[in-house]
Amino acid sequence: DTGVSQDPRHKITKRGQNVTFRCDPISEHNRLYWYRQTLGQGPEFLTYFQNEAQLEKSRLLSDRFSAERPKGSFSTLEIQRTEQGDSAMYLCASSLSFYGYTFGSGTRLTVV
Amino acid sequence: GQQLNQSPQSMFIQEGEDVSMNCTSSSIFNTWLWYKQDPGEGPVLLIALYKAGELTSNGRLTAQFGITRKDSFLNISASIPSDVGIYFCAGQPDNNDMRFGAGTRLTVKP
Q1: What pLDDT was estimated at residue B95?
Q2: What is the pLDDT of residues B46-99, one digit of tens each?
Q3: Which of A61, A67, A90, B36 is most deeply buried (CB count within 10 A of its CB)?
């Protein structure tokens, strides 16, 4: 098991474009989380899946953001019509219970 | 936004010195966790605390879950250069949502 994988590691996009990130959790973990981290801040919760069900969404997750976890395995986070304020590190984490998340290395998004 | 107050914001210490950082909240948490993040990487779990008053060690690291359930501290003894990084506290008020402090940036001078 190689841990939580995120792809791509870096993404530069023009304002207004759509972007999609992928997260592959640890295989036996049924819980998957997305967080966003801006420079100088701690990660902020975006959304949470248990298996394929999206159980919780933060107010930070505007209608331009959508996350899916088909079949309860990998997850995707899509941002439509990107804005400069979307520039951040997007972190995925997984866990078997509600303790002790394992984070991936993140996808750094830069919107120019 | 952030609901945890983490201090200090940054620390510059000499190798071999001990370090202490803490986190406070206006809300009660059921779990406190401490993570370390290196540049360009995700946070890595250092210590998890599940019970008020609990004191837990992991090598040179020691953390405590405050008795009021609104605070926690992390101590690092005999710091070494590889301790450099950003340390985050995180609290879980319930089963699903983990909230992070803004981090303590630690610099260790050889």
Answers
A1: 63
A2: 999 999 999 999 999 999 999 999 999 999 999 999 999 999 999 988 766 788
A3: A90
The DSSP annotation for B22-67 comes to: EEEESS--SEEEEEEE-TTS--EEEEEE-STT-EEEETTEEEEE-T
Tell whether B1 is within 8 A of chain A (Cβ). yes
Asked whether the CA dihedral B1, A57, A101, B84 is positive or negative, the reply is negative
Q: Contact A95/A104 with Cβ under 8 angstroms?
A: no
Which of A42, A93, A103 lies at the smallest CB-CB distance from B103? Answer: A42
- Give the closest of B1, B41, B92 to A105, CB-based: B41
